[in-house]
Amino acid sequence: MDTRCRVCSGTVREFIDLGRQPTANGFLLPSEVAGEFFFRLAVGACQECRMVQLLEEVPQELRYHAGYRYHASGSAAHRSHFENDAKRFLRTELTGPDPFIVEIGCNDGVMLSTISTAGVRHLGVEPSGDVADLARAKGVRVLSAFFDEQTAADIRIRHGVADVVFGANTICHIAHIASVFRGIDQLLGPNGVFVFEEPYLGTIIEQMAFDQIYDEHVFYFSVTSVKEMAARFGFELVDAERIPLHGGEIRYTIARPATRAPSESLAELLAQEQAGKLSEEQTFAQFGSNVARIRDDLVTLLTDLRAEGKRVVGYGAPGKSSTVTNYCGIGPDLVPFVCDSTPSKQGHLIPGSHLPVRPPSEFSDPYPDYALLFAWNHSKEIMAKEEDFRASGGKWIRYVPEVEVL
Length: 406
Ligand code: SAH
Ligand code: TYD
Ligand code: ZN
What we know:
six-stranded mixed β-sheet; binds zinc ion; seven-stranded mixed β-sheet
C-alpha cells in the first residue's frame, strides 16, 4: 500500500511490514488488555525526496499523555550526554545578551536542568504530563503542549525569538513536520539554529536495528533526506555529526539559508550515504529480508531453549522490546518476564506481547540461564552492572545485528 509523503506529498513506497503492533510505550496493566490499541507497523521511502517514514500513524494523543513512561534520565549514559549538550550550548550559541533556548520534547528535563541551573532563559515544550512534572521539579520551565506552528507563534509572542531550538529523539516523532518547520521559522532568531539528535537510518540498516521501528518513530532520517527536507522548508542543513546514543544517532544543525558555513563532517556523511547506497531500493529490500531472518533465528533459539528446560528472562523494556516481541510473536511462554529499572514500567506489561515487567532485583532471584538483552544499546552499562550473572554461568542473548549468544 502506498501513501503520501509528509514532507513533499510524493508517493511513499512500502519496503517493510512488521505486522500488527501496539503503541510501543503503551505499557499496560493486566486489567487494561481488553482495550489495547493496534495498528499496522510498516515503513516506506518517498519516491521524490527519499524520506523514510511510517505508512500508517498513531494519533499523537494516544502516544503522548500523562501516562507516557519513557524517562530520558533513565541511564547514566543519557544523563551525561545531555548534560554535555547543555554545556556546549552554554559555551557556544547561548553567550549573547539574555539568550533563550527552547526544547521540543524536554521530557523529564534531562538537558534543560543544566541550562536552568546556569540561570539561562529556557522553555521546554512537553505534552506528556508526568514527565513534564518531573522536569518542573528540577527547576525547568515547561509549557504543556504539542509543538507546532501555533505553539511556536505563542512562544514568540510571550518570550521573543530563540537562539536555539533543540529536540532529541522527538523531531522524528512528529508527523506534522511541515507545521514544525513553519513554527521554527516563526520562533528562530535570524542567526539561530535548530539542532536535533535523532535515530539514524544508516545505523538501523547497518546494525539491523529494526526494533528502532515503532509507532513513535514516524520518520527515519538520513543526512540526505534531512538536507532535502530543510531546503524544502526554507532552511539549510549546515552540520551533521554522529553521536553514540541509541546505538548511533545523528545530530543535525539547521540554520537560515547562507547564515553559516556547511561543515566538513556534513559533506563526509553525505558522501558516505551515497557510496553506501543508503537511500536505494535494493538496500531497503535487503534490509527487509535480513529482518525476517533474524526473526526466524531468534524464535528458533528461544523455542529450543524452552525445549531444553532453560530459563530465559528479558533485560530492559525499551520501546524497542515491543517491536521485536510483537513482530516475532514472543510471549510469556518463551520469556516469562522482563526486568527494567523504570519504576513506572514495573508491574505493567510490555504492550501487545504482554511480557510482565518486574524490578531488576528479581533478575538475580535466582539468575536465569539466559538473559535476552532488549536494551542492547545500553549493553556496556548493563553488562558491567550484571557481572555476577555471567560469573554465575549466565549467558546474554543479542539479536542485532544478528542472533548471538554471548
Ligand atoms: N528528549 C528526550 C525525550 C525523548 S522522548 C530524550 O532524548 O531522551 C520524546 C518526547 O517528545 C516525549 O517526552 C514526548 O512527550 C515528546 N513529544 C512528542 N511529540 C511532541 C511534540 N509535538 N511537541 C513537543 N514534544 C513532543
Ligand atoms: P532506551 O534504550 O533508552 O529507550 P527506548 O525506549 O527509546 O528504546 O531504554 C532503555 C530501557 O532499559 C529503559 O526502560 C531503562 C532500562 N534499563 C535498565 O533496566 N537497566 C539499565 O541498567 C539500563 C541502562 C536501562
Ligand atoms: Zn517526500
